[in-house]
Automatic annotation (TrEMBL):
Protein name according to UniProt: Lipopolysaccharide biosynthesis protein WzxC
Subcellular location, record wording: Cell membrane
Keyword entries, A-Z: Cell membrane, Membrane, Transmembrane, Transmembrane helix
InterPro entries listed in its UniProt record: Poly_Biosynth_Transport
Species whose genome carries this gene: Microbacterium foliorum
UniProt lineage: Bacteria, Bacillati, Actinomycetota, Actinomycetes, Micrococcales
Major localization listed first in the record, in broad terms: membrane
Family the UniProt entry places it in: Belongs to the polysaccharide synthase family.
Membrane topology: Multi-pass membrane protein
One Pfam family of this chain: Polysacc_synt_3
GO cellular component: plasma membrane
Gene that this polypeptide is encoded by: wzxC
Residue ranges crossing the lipid bilayer per the database entry: 12-37, 43-62, 83-107, 113-130, 151-173, 179-197, 284-307, 327-347, 359-377, 383-404, 416-437, 443-466
Length: 488
């Protein structure tokens, strides 16, 4: 049983990582192509509306995705009821968003936002219908079809958006991209799950699941408000063009990380939930998860931070040069949030919703204070504040968790220290090379800097503790590549 679960988790991670690697490539392609056609103003408009959409998405999900995955048992009737709850919320939010579209345009002084808001309101309906179909696939660890659906939806939506942008549709290309993604995801998860919900029945109570979901809604609302405070401050204090620069720098780093971390939750959460009563196995899984996330993504992100200037020049073009220092700050933030992300999984796996809410309130207040102070130093000041926040919040997270549930606190601190140390060394090596070759072509800086960063990372393997970490990762990869067993 233990071997089967480990194999299912590893194979699930394999398909998830493969899919997210493809999605990251598509995201980078989107940035490279669309950023050369569309303006910072276009991206700024969409960023404003997506703040509202993101807020609505918290209510649309209502925490019921995590609730259904985390539940030790979930009957067919309960699953049907959860579907209708999510669908009803999606319909309601679509109507609310459409009604608020004129107010959004008036408050921001951007009349273009009215039409954008009205069309993006449809995403609530699409996602509401897809929520439990997707959760059902995740719960059953059927991650291969889910991976295919995610990649296909992103690829088709990007192709349509590029066509629309080339046709001169401006910001509407970005709106179309969002809608096409949602539509294809809905069709895909329904087809893959082969499950047709029956009518709502009171004979299958879901009160406990809804209560768990509600605590996650409150937690996510607090987290979302703290995450969006930077967008709101920049849009009102500095305008849509600076917001567009900030948003593109953010998307280059944080979106790929999110695309990897969040889907990996679909593997980690059901696995950790199943072994939560076996403390040694639970701690081993948590520690291995941190190492996998930290080393696999911390080192590349650190190298990108060191090569921020040539990376922005190549990916976005010369008119986006002001985004480079912001990109560097987001990379630092990305590394710190990645090494601490397993803490969030522990809260969910052990059903610690109320404790997660209290912790989120504290860290959200810290985030708001950091960003408000940073805003007095311009847009770059906001980006610096974004990097400072996780450096403060991460130790609080570990201390908080250790008080309420058994945690391998010392191992997580040590693992994070090793990850940050080798990532920083790789990033500094890449930065030093880029500075030395500043007069050369951006591609030369990028290539040589990348080689320098990877070389420094390889040198770390001469240190025994890093060799042990490498063996842990190698064992995980071998599990992923085994052909026996099932994850789909």
């Amino acid at each position: 049983m233990a071997s089967s679960l480990a194999h299912s988790a590893a194979r699930g991670a394999y398909f998830t990582l493969a899919a997210q690697a493809a999605r990251i490539l598509l995201q980078l392609l989107s940035v490279v192509v669309l950023a050369r056609i569309l303006s910072p103003h276009d991206y700024g408009l969409l960023a404003i509306v997506l703040v509202v959409v993101g807020l609505g998405e918290i209510f649309r999900d209502f925490g019921l995705t995590s609730a259904s995955i985390q539940a030790p048992e979930l009957s067919t009737g309960q699953r049907d009821n959860l579907f209708w709850i999510n669908a009803a919320i999606g319909v309601l939010l679509t109507a609310i968003m459409y009604s608020l579209s004129w107010a959004i345009g008036a408050v921001t002084g951007e009349p273009d936002l009215v039409g954008i808001s009205q069309w993006l309101a449809l995403t609530f309906l699409l996602n509401g219908l897809a929520t439990q179909h997707r959760a059902n696939l995740m719960r059953d660890l059927k991650l291969r079809p889910l991976a295919v659906i995610d990649v296909a939806s992103s690829a088709i939506a990007l192709a349509v958006a590029i066509i629309a942008a080339v046709a001169g549709m401006g910001y509407w290309a970005l709106v179309i991209q969002q809608l096409v993604t949602g539509a294809i995801l809905l069709v895909g998860v329904v087809a893959a799950g082969r499950w047709w919900p029956r009518r709502y029945s009171r004979a299958h109570p879901v009160k406990q699941l809804v209560n768990f979901g509600w605590t996650l809604v409150a937690t996510n609302l607090i987290g979302y408000a703290s995450r969006q405070i930077d967008t709101v401050l920049i849009s009102f204090r500095f305008g849509t063009a600076p917001l567009g620069l900030y948003n593109r720098a953010f998307q280059l780093i944080m979106t790929p990380l999110t695309q990897v971390r969040s889907p990996l939750q679909s593997v980690a959460l059901p696995v950790l939930s199943r072994v939560q009563q076996d403390q040694p196995r639970f701690e081993a899984y948590v520690t291995a998860a941190q190492l996998a996330l930290g080393f696999l993504f911390g080192i590349p992100v650190a190298i990108v931070a060191g090569l921020a200037e040539p990376a922005v020049d190549i990916m976005l073009g010369s008119r986006w040069a002001e985004a480079a220092p912001m990109l560097r700050m987001f990379a630092i933030a990305g590394i710190l949030t990645t090494v601490s992300f397993v803490g969030y999984w522990v809260y969910l796996a052990r059903g610690l919703g109320a404790d997660l809410l209290r912790y989120s309130i504290v860290t959200a207040l810290i985030k708001v204070v950091c960003v408000v102070i940073g805003s007095f130093f311009g847009v770059l000041g906001v980006a610096i504040a974004f990097a400072v926040h996780p450096a403060i919040a991460w130790p609080i997270s570990l201390a908080w968790l250790s008080r309420i549930t058994p945690m391998p606190r010392r191992q997580l601190y040590q693992g994070a220290g090793r990850i940050i140390a080798v990532s920083a060394a790789a990033g500094l090596a890449a930065w030093g090379v880029a500075q030395a070759l500043a007069a050369t072509d951006a591609w030369v800086q990028l290539g040589v800097g990348l080689a320098a960063g990877l070389a420094v990372s390889a040198v770390a393997l001469t240190i025994p503790v890093y060799r042990r970490d490498a063996k842990t990762l190698a064992s995980f990869v071998r599990l992923m590549l085994k052909r026996d067993g099932r994850s789909d």
